[in-house]
Amino acid sequence: KKMTVRIVELEEHCTSLTQKITSIEKQKSRLSQEIEIMILDLEKANNNFRETKSKLEIVDREYKSLVV
């Protein structure tokens, strides 16, 4: 009888752990998607920065050529 009770306890514990694993896997998937979106946003921001920097350098050169 003690063994049966212990087996039931362990089965319940296994079920609980399986549910936790499923929940964690869903969280991992969601976080992975969020990270992918953040990476794309970062790439866009870097591209915008490079474009703006390039335009600023052109304006700066034009300004310097007018001043001289």
TrEMBL record:
Key words of the record: Coiled coil
Sections of the chain in a coiled coil: 7-62
Superkingdom classification of source: Eukaryota
Name of the protein described by the UniProt record: Paramyosin
Species the sequence originates in: Palaemon varians (Atlantic ditch shrimp)
